[in-house]
Amino acid sequence: MLCLNFNRKETAVNSEYQQELSNSLPVENGVGETNGDELKNDSSVKNEDLDDIPWSQRIREKQQNSSTSKSVKRPVTPVESGGEEAQPIVKKSADKKRKTRQASSESEEEYTPKKKSKSSKSKPEKPTPKSSAKKETKTEEDSDYDDDKPAKKKKKSTENNLVKQESSSSASPTKKKKKAEEEEEVWKWWEEQSPEQSDGTIKWRTLEHKGPMFAPEYVPLPKNIKFKYNGKPMDLSPSAEEVATFYAKMLDHDYTSKPIFNQNFLRIGESDINAYFLSETEKRKARSKEEKKAEKEIKDKEAAEYGFAMLDGYKQKIGNFRIEPPGLFRGRGEHPKMGCLKLRVQPEDVIINCSKGVTIPPPKGHKWKEVRHDNMVFLFFNLRRISNNNMSFEGLVSKSKLNLGLCVTWLCSWNENVLFSNKYIMLNPSSKLKGQKDWEKFEKARKLKGCVGPIRDQYLLDFKSKEMRIRQRAVALYFIDKFALRAGNEKDTDEAADTVGCCSLRCEHIKLHEELDNQKYVVEFDFLGKDSIRYYNRVPVEKAVFKNLKIFMEGKEPGDDLFDRLDTSSLNAYLKELMDGLTAKVFRTYNASITLQDQLDKLTNPDDTIHAKLLSYNRANRQVAILCNHQRAVPKTHDKAMETLQNKINEKKKEYKEIKAELKKNKNDEKLQKKYTRVKEQLVKLKTQHTDKDENKQIALGTSKLNYLDPRISVAWCKKYDIPIEKIYSKTQRDKFRWAIDMTKEDFIF
């Protein structure tokens, strides 16, 4: 019999499911259907009674008045001169394309017809009226988020490329109009009501969405692919076979070589299944353009159906609308639960959050676990004090029917069976609720700027307190403030990876050096932080801190807590007394942002080129990443990329020397002078890229940029030094920080 080890903690959800698995692996497959009533989206339905004629006439008149001669010459017909057939051609062409669009069920993607919509009679028509019609049709159907592809260069007029040519001629106006529409559809919530004017209690009035998209049903293996146990082929039920494939897919991964992973999931021989999936992977890589395009259309259709919510009448993107498929839990680092089975999430496990009166139908044959209407924030203080009978935090909230601040921003929620933690489907970072939350976070950090002086003075005094509890709190706060350590929480190492923060440091995580590298009172940190990333640092500290650490460690074993009279909740409770809303995390945000501001002021030279200024920005960002311990492994392709870049530099140097020598002979050659200047700038750019790439090979700049750095610092810097914001933020990041880009002036200072 095939046996698997699962998390044996009993839960109400999927209890039968787990019992079957422990016996013979007949895992109950979820239906996973995605059918149901589609979310009504009036914003995507355009009014068909647009003023087609006036619009096309305006385009025609504009093109006739301009002295362009780039259009392809074709015979003039009565249609071109504004005859009776001009209007029907425009209307019918648009209507026919619209019907074709609906029939193919394509979702909000730019539409390029494969066939002409008119007979040969319309072929000799000038491109002006017809391009107008095509432009109007495309404008109606373009999505809000797909980028236009650049128009291809026009070719000579032939019957085969006529449609492409006309589409190309209208691409530029379509792109401009599409961008204008995108600007119109942006919800500038910060202009309607500034964030500081909101009381922060009610987060939304109406919320409507489609619900989550469930994982697809399991597709059984081909009959010739058999599961083998002790070398003998065996027939499994489809559900048991599905679980076996989870492991088979990972045979080539490092996880299957880890004892903990194999202990949690009994190692079984599945070489045939593994080979099958490897062949399927190769087939997927070898897909044709048509197959990739068809898959993209399916994904776009799913995104159009499930990827948006209506919040207070505005269309907002959803972050990730797909529920995680079943599989094997991996975790990070040496997680004790790696290899445990993640069960399939059923609709009966999911809680829906929406406004009253909104009906979100579950998949056919299923029902939701619960439907809530949570739109208000309730604050909790000192929950540990008001809980009783060892009631868990989750149980307390559930029993009281109250909601956390986080609750109002989620659309769907369920409890996963491995770590028994809540999972959420949230709005996209570009949404109003996320933007407001970011604004509040950075404003709180700015508020700390005015309070940090007295706070520091106080913890310096507390180093000499008569109470050991206060001394430990002061030293911990010193670490959090000076070295941007995370606060850290107590963990059960049987349930989670052994990662620590400041308050959960053990004696084994630090070493004290009276003198090291010509520095006195040095503390050596060495521990695993968040995501099992090693934090190693040697730093000089205040003499009082050093002496207190010696006292804290006296008579303790290496595995004992360094701060045995302190925890995160008591530290945060103390901080709230110093400033409203202050927590240990606010210190991390404050120190990251103030470091970026100081470094930019110090490193930026107004006379530098754009590339030199960007190098200064990345160096400032890197100082923040080092402070926050945002590390990464050196990319496997780093050496090859550096070699390629160095070859480009060598070639450019050679070209530069040749042009320089030639310019000495022809000093008055303006064309050669321009070429010399251009090549010189290109060489400087390549050298800057080489330096930047090498300096950042082990540093992750993106984490701090997205989570800890006030975007207004970067936006103001860009505006002050005429740096395109696209050089700092990607399109997704610009959407996330649209509020900062729109409202920040160049004189902003954190």
From TrEMBL:
<feature type="active site" description="O-(3'-phospho-DNA)-tyrosine intermediate">
    <location>
        <position position="708"/>
    </location>
</feature>
<dbReference type="GO" id="GO:0003677">
    <property type="term" value="F:DNA binding"/>
</dbReference>
<comment type="function">
    <text>Releases the supercoiling and torsional tension of DNA introduced during the DNA replication and transcription by transiently cleaving and rejoining one strand of the DNA duplex. Introduces a single-strand break via transesterification at the specific target site 5'-[CT]CCTTp site in duplex DNA. The scissile phosphodiester is attacked by the catalytic tyrosine of the enzyme, resulting in the formation of a DNA-(3'-phosphotyrosyl)-enzyme intermediate and the expulsion of a 5'-OH DNA strand. The free DNA strand then undergoes passage around the unbroken strand thus removing DNA supercoils.</text>
</comment>
<dbReference type="InterPro" id="IPR011010">
    <property type="entry name" value="DNA_brk_join_enz"/>
</dbReference>
<dbReference type="InterPro" id="IPR008336">
    <property type="entry name" value="TopoI_DNA-bd_euk"/>
</dbReference>
<feature type="compositionally biased region" description="Basic and acidic residues">
    <location>
        <begin position="122"/>
        <end position="140"/>
    </location>
</feature>
<dbReference type="Pfam" id="PF14370">
    <property type="entry name" value="Topo_C_assoc"/>
</dbReference>
<dbReference type="InterPro" id="IPR013500">
    <property type="entry name" value="TopoI_cat_euk"/>
</dbReference>
<dbReference type="Pfam" id="PF02919">
    <property type="entry name" value="Topoisom_I_N"/>
</dbReference>
<dbReference type="InterPro" id="IPR013034">
    <property type="entry name" value="DNA_topo_DNA_db_N_dom1"/>
</dbReference>
<dbReference type="InterPro" id="IPR051062">
    <property type="entry name" value="Topoisomerase_IB"/>
</dbReference>
<dbReference type="InterPro" id="IPR018521">
    <property type="entry name" value="TopoIB_AS"/>
</dbReference>
<dbReference type="InterPro" id="IPR001631">
    <property type="entry name" value="TopoI"/>
</dbReference>
<protein>
    <recommendedName>
        <fullName>DNA topoisomerase I</fullName>
        <ecNumber>5.6.2.1</ecNumber>
    </recommendedName>
</protein>
<feature type="compositionally biased region" description="Low complexity">
    <location>
        <begin position="164"/>
        <end position="173"/>
    </location>
</feature>
<dbReference type="InterPro" id="IPR014727">
    <property type="entry name" value="TopoI_cat_a/b-sub_euk"/>
</dbReference>
<dbReference type="InterPro" id="IPR036202">
    <property type="entry name" value="TopoI_DNA-bd_euk_N_sf"/>
</dbReference>
<dbReference type="InterPro" id="IPR014711">
    <property type="entry name" value="TopoI_cat_a-hlx-sub_euk"/>
</dbReference>
<feature type="region of interest" description="Disordered">
    <location>
        <begin position="13"/>
        <end position="192"/>
    </location>
</feature>
<dbReference type="GO" id="GO:0005730">
    <property type="term" value="C:nucleolus"/>
</dbReference>
<dbReference type="GO" id="GO:0007059">
    <property type="term" value="P:chromosome segregation"/>
</dbReference>
<feature type="domain" description="DNA topoisomerase I eukaryotic-type">
    <location>
        <begin position="328"/>
        <end position="722"/>
    </location>
</feature>
<keyword id="KW-0799">Topoisomerase</keyword>
<dbReference type="GO" id="GO:0003917">
    <property type="term" value="F:DNA topoisomerase type I (single strand cut, ATP-independent) activity"/>
</dbReference>
<feature type="coiled-coil region">
    <location>
        <begin position="642"/>
        <end position="689"/>
    </location>
</feature>
<comment type="similarity">
    <text>Belongs to the type IB topoisomerase family.</text>
</comment>
<dbReference type="InterPro" id="IPR013499">
    <property type="entry name" value="TopoI_euk"/>
</dbReference>
<keyword id="KW-0413">Isomerase</keyword>
<dbReference type="GO" id="GO:0006265">
    <property type="term" value="P:DNA topological change"/>
</dbReference>
<feature type="compositionally biased region" description="Polar residues">
    <location>
        <begin position="13"/>
        <end position="26"/>
    </location>
</feature>
<dbReference type="GO" id="GO:0005694">
    <property type="term" value="C:chromosome"/>
</dbReference>
<keyword id="KW-0175">Coiled coil</keyword>
<dbReference type="InterPro" id="IPR025834">
    <property type="entry name" value="TopoI_C_dom"/>
</dbReference>
<dbReference type="InterPro" id="IPR013030">
    <property type="entry name" value="DNA_topo_DNA_db_N_dom2"/>
</dbReference>
<keyword id="KW-0238">DNA-binding</keyword>
<dbReference type="GO" id="GO:0006260">
    <property type="term" value="P:DNA replication"/>
</dbReference>
<feature type="compositionally biased region" description="Basic and acidic residues">
    <location>
        <begin position="37"/>
        <end position="48"/>
    </location>
</feature>
<dbReference type="Pfam" id="PF01028">
    <property type="entry name" value="Topoisom_I"/>
</dbReference>
